[in-house]
Design goal:
- About 20% of the residues lie in helices and about 45% in strands.
- The protein has a 36-stranded mixed β-sheet that branches.
- Strand 11 and strand 12 form a beta hairpin.
- Helix 9 packs parallel to helix 10.
- The longest helix is centred in the C-terminal third of the chain and has 32 residues.
- The N terminus and C terminus are likely disordered.
Length: about 650
């Protein structure tokens, strides 16, 4: 019995001496041994700085100071992993059986660089190739065969994560805390990450259902949720090693501006009606060339609901192609201040009823994207007016937007043509439109505050304005156009009463047709060929309309067609003053001048007639005009002269 106890004591002593030797071995010597083993197993360089502490059972572990782990030979000189400290532990009993069960990997301030090129990932580890022996036993296990690999706990604190694909950095996130676990070969890989962001933090939860299949390039189920200040995203679908994805996507925001700020887009205001609060769902497909396809899309943007599909190319700026349908689209508060408390676009120093706004127009949104968006809607309400059923196409190209109407329903009629906003070198707006069936009173009231003219019209309009404010644009307007209106009414004066005929509705003038052409220069519209047809009158007009100054100076001349034996009586009407309250009155100066000219002619004719009668009596003849007076006097003188000569020469 004594010899058995001595043998056991000797074995314990030898084992203790071996363990003690390892524990007492200098840190740099342990680091060298570990680095050689890692290189033998992975082909990568491992550099350990500072003391290396080991544990053996039940966890074979290591703790070290600053560490770097080499990259794949094709991935460049930067290490795949570096950290200020690293702790690694594996299950010792599982390791004896051939499995690698990683109990923990903990790193402080690490930098993890993941690279993918031509289908190869720098995270794929394999031992260096060795020359096979000349002969092997038929039952030997192949050299490269490995057991199961699992991960119980991975923790990276204050990490920097980079993902590089084919030489291009896809993302670079700093100040990231990351935790991951893959406790069993059949269990999903679960990853949680948190990153500091303006206004809070971004949290990511990711689950890959079959990690071995994913690592081998097989398409694998993926669940992903992202929560950020102002909203969250959720994806449920499938993914492959190249990062391509297909599945169900949902994005919900309570403050889109806060979410944009969290991802580095601070200061980007979202117009009310376009998703300050949003709920978007779709079937999404993402390909490795940066293309996103959204199908069966439903987007609730504030109080507006849109459906359709979209294709997006991730670039700077993004390229968007979309086809959307909306019911009643309300953008009437598009210019309202931002949700964060921004001021309205209207200038407080320039009330809208006194002139155009002098507030600067922010047209930076024209640079947010390029592409083509087609929209069909039952109605579209924008500031100041509402469109009916419309088919619109918006083309965006480098800060230039072209809105094509195919057609648009406006003022109870239809508009065809296009409107352009260009902010490449300062803001300019222009258009080329044709209109049919337009309610003239609605159009003039909405666009210029003019309420007195009503009817249904058609026409064409070309225009161009330049400026950074509404006031500058209106004062710079140039263009031309034509208007044709059918039966209508002018309120504010009664042409029948003015012409002394009475009848009709008091204070109004009904007309059968109206036509006019015009030119615009420096915000002033001029017209010289207005023609209005009424039952008993014809009216002509000419003058100026100050679009920039919002005033008018126009002479309207009606002519009574049945008066004065059909020659007509003209009573001009002058319209002068601001659009909101112009003065409409007969131009009495013109009337008096015309009447005075008529009376003078009447007196002249009466005097002439009396002269003709007096001279006729004296000359004993009938005279009807001034030319006959001279002839009658000549004839009388000849008669008297002949009588005198006859007496002189003794004749009868």
């Amino acid at each position: 019995m004594k010899w058995l106890l001595r043998i056991l004591f000797l074995l314990v002593a030898v084992f203790g001496l071996i363990i003690g030797a390892l524990l007492l071995m200098p840190g740099d010597k342990l680091a060298t041994i570990l680095a050689e083993q890692v290189r033998a197993q992975t082909g990568r360089d491992l550099k350990l700085t500072g003391d290396v502490n080991l544990s053996f059972w039940p966890v074979l572990g290591m703790e070290t100071g600053p560490v770097t782990f080499g990259n794949a030979p094709w991935a460049g000189p930067e290490p795949m992993l570096s950290a200020e400290s690293l702790a690694v532990g594996v299950d010792a009993s599982a390791l004896i059986s051939g499995d690698l069960r990683i109990k923990r990997v903990i790193a402080e301030n690490p930098v993890l660089r993941l690279e993918l090129s031509d289908g190869r990932g720098n995270w794929e580890l394999s031992a260096p190739e060795t020359v096979a022996p000349a002969s092997t036993t038929s039952g030997a296990v192949p050299q490269g065969q490995q057991g199961e690999v699992t991960l119980d706990h991975l923790k990276l604190t204050n990490a920097r994560l980079l993902y590089i694909e084919n030489g291009a950095t896809k993302f670079d996130f700093a100040n990231v805390d990351l935790a991951a676990s893959w406790p069993d070969i059949a269990a999903p890989l679960k990853v949680q990450a948190q990153m500091a962001a303006p206004g809070g933090a971004v949290d990511v939860d990711l689950s890959i259902q079959d990690l071995p299949a994913y690592a081998s390039g097989v398409v694998t189920p993926l669940d992903l949720t992202l929560t950020a200040p102002g909203g969250d995203f959720a994806f449920d679908g499938r993914v492959n090693l190249a990062g391509e994805m297909a599945g169900s996507l949902r994005a919900e925001t309570t403050s889109t501006e806060r979410m944009l700020a969290a991802f580095g887009q601070a200061g980007m205001g979202v117009p009310l009606g376009l998703g300050r609060a949003a709920d978007v769902s779709a079937q999404m497909t993402y390909t490795q060339d940066g293309r996103i396809s959204l199908r069966n899309m439903v987007a609730q943007l504030d109080d507006n609901r849109l459906t359709g599909e979209a294709d997006i190319v991730i670039s700077d700026p993004p390229q968007i192609t979309a086809r959307l349908d909306a019911g009643d689209l309300d953008l009437s508060r598009f210019n309202d201040g931002a949700a964060t408390g921004g001021a309205s676009q209207a200038s407080p120093a320039t009330p809208q009823n006194e002139g155009w706004s002098t507030a600067p127009i922010d047209a930076s949104a024209l640079a947010l994207a390029n592409g083509k968006i087609r929209l069909k809607a039952n109605s579209i309400a924008v500031p100041g007016l509402t469109l009916g059923p419309s088919d619109l196409t918006l083309n965006l190209d480098r800060s230039r937007a072209v809105l094509q109407m195919n057609p648009a329903t406006l003022f109870s009629g239809q508009l065809n043509g296009q409107v352009v906003a260009n902010n490449r070198n300062g803001l300019s707006v222009g258009g080329n439109l044709t209109a049919d069936g337009i309610n003239v009173q609605q159009a003039l009231s909405t666009l210029g505050g003019i309420e007195r003219l009503s009817g249904t019209g058609s026409g064409s309009f070309e225009f161009l304005g330049v400026g950074q404010t509404e006031d500058q644009i209106m004062r710079s307007l140039s263009g031309k156009g034509r208007v044709d209106v059918g039966r209508g009414v002018i309120s504010g004066f009664d042409l029948d009463r003015l012409m002394g005929r009475g009848g009709g509705e008091a204070g109004t003038t009904a007309f059968n047709s109206l036509s006019a052409s015009f030119n615009i220069d420096q915000g002033v519209l001029r017209n010289d060929d207005l023609l209005m047809s009424l039952d008993n009158f014809r009216a002509d007009g000419s003058g100026r309309v100050g679009i920039g100054n919002r005033d008018i100076d126009y002479l309207f001349t009606p002519v009574a067609l049945r008066a004065n034996s059909g020659n007509g009586i003209a009573v001009p009407v002058r319209i002068v003053g601001p659009w909101s309250n112009p003065s409409i009155r007969p131009d009495l100066t013109k009337v008096i001048e015309a009447a005075a000219e008529g009376k003078a002619k009447e007196l002249e004719d009466e005097a002439k007639q009396k002269v003709f009668e007096k001279v006729g009596n004296e000359l004993d003849t009938t005279i009807t005009d001034s030319d006959q007076i001279e002839d009658a006097i000549k004839n009388k003188l000849e008669d008297e002269l002949n009588k005198g000569l006859l007496k002189l020469f003794g004749g009868n």
